[in-house]
Amino acid sequence: MLPCDVAQKQVAGRFSIDGVTFDDLFPEAVAQRIEGEVSGSGQFSGAGEDFAGVINSLGGDGSFSVLGLRIEDFDPNIFEKINAVEDVLEMDAEALEDRVLADLAGAPYVSNGFEGLFSLAAGKVLISNIAIEDERTRLIGDASLALIDMGLESGWSLTPTQNIGDGTVLDETTGRSMR
To answer: Which of 27, 33, 118, 139 has its CA 20 to 30 A from that of 150?
Structure first.
């Protein structure tokens, strides 16, 4: 029989940050590839029998903005590079994927910034439907950060916002690079 008087730990709070760099917020693997300053605020609460239980039960929400975004090895000129490949429409899928991944490397994606909302559920920070733009492309995606181990999952799609070349191979509708 389990004891009925197991002590629950509880936490609740609000927070606000202003101009905090990715280096100070995220694990090194993320901070090495992404630069920017984050501002935002939110609220949270959780309860559990121990620290891990509290973290895994956290819930809440908030908003944020990122200024001066720079993502390494995510070249927004990928569409021009692929458009310049002879017989690109004849390439098999694996060769095209290898080419795209190689061509993404070497140059950063740079944007003035973006804003978004987040939610906390079951100890994860969830960010959905983020849209980031530069002069010629739009980067759309989502991310999930597990607070207990800082495990990050995300999915992103890069699309051109205008025709590439004469538009016969790549345009706003047919061009998309996922990473």
So the answer is: 139
